[in-house]
Write a structure and sequence with these properties.
The protein is built from 11 helices and no strands. Helix content is about 75%, strand content about 0%.
């Protein structure tokens, strides 16, 4: 029973790490190009010319998505609450930096083909939403409202994992060999974020509200013992 419970406890974190793998590896390759002085091409010239937002984005997003996956292990939170809180102090700022540098790149870099105005708007919308969600997560944990803190962390993390899901939403285009147009690109990009947000809301809303026996409704509304990311 313990072994089965332990495997189930790690199923979600490991799955999230695997979802992060392709974007993290692609980011590492891009960092290698920047560090190694790659030959400029139409695809990478904007990054080589102004690498600061790219480097900050890749590093912060990789840490937020890959290490942040461990926060979704209930057993790890219960057994190592100190680590959970300490890592939260790192992960929340990392996530906010990832969101803001994503917006920075959207505004600073030329729009590459086949991205168009819709993808441009999507990046602004979801990047802003991610930053707001993580700021609200910090506000709620300071208020010790752990249920709301948890909900905002899940929403912010779901948006941050958009690049991982977009690997799969682009697969039909890649496998079919069809030309990637502005419309198909926008649909594939948007689908990645929307799928994650829908799953996040389902997780948030399906969580049962526990009310310990013998406590009043007012007392039961207090902070839950397990948080996702704590600042203290």
């Amino acid at each position: 029973m313990t072994s089965s419970s332990s495997r189930a406890d790690w199923l979600v974190p490991v799955s999230l790490m695997l979802l992060s793998a392709v974007p993290v590896l692609a980011g590492a390759v891009r960092l290698g190009e920047v560090a190694g002085g790659a030959t400029p091409t139409p695809e990478n010239t904007r990054f080589l010319t102004d690498p600061v937002p790219l480097v900050l984005h890749i590093v912060s997003a990789s840490v937020f998505c890959f290490v942040g996956a461990l926060q979704f292990s209930p057993g790890l939170r219960r057994r190592h609450l100190g680590w959970h809180r300490a890592s939260g102090r790192v992960l929340l700022p990392m996530g906010i930096v990832a969101a803001l540098t994503g917006l920075w790149m959207t505004f600073a870099y030329d729009v590459p083909a086949p991205d168009g105005v819709v993808v441009y708007a999507q990046r602004i919308l979801f990047g802003s939403a991610m930053a707001v969600a993580l700021v609200l997560a910090y506000v709620e944990v300071r208020r010790r409202n752990i249920a709301r803190h948890r909900a905002w962390v899940i929403r912010g993390y779901a948006i941050g994992q958009g690049a991982g899901t977009q690997v799969f939403t682009h697969l039909p285009l890649l496998l079919s060999g069809a030309e990637v147009t502005e419309t198909s690109r926008a649909l594939a990009m948007g689908a990645g974020w929307v799928v994650n947000i829908v799953v996040a809301e389902w997780i948030i809303r399906r969580r049962p509200r526990r009310r310990p026996v013998g406590r009043t409704p007012a007392a039961a509304a207090g902070p839950e013992p397990t948080a996702t990311v704590r600042s203290r």
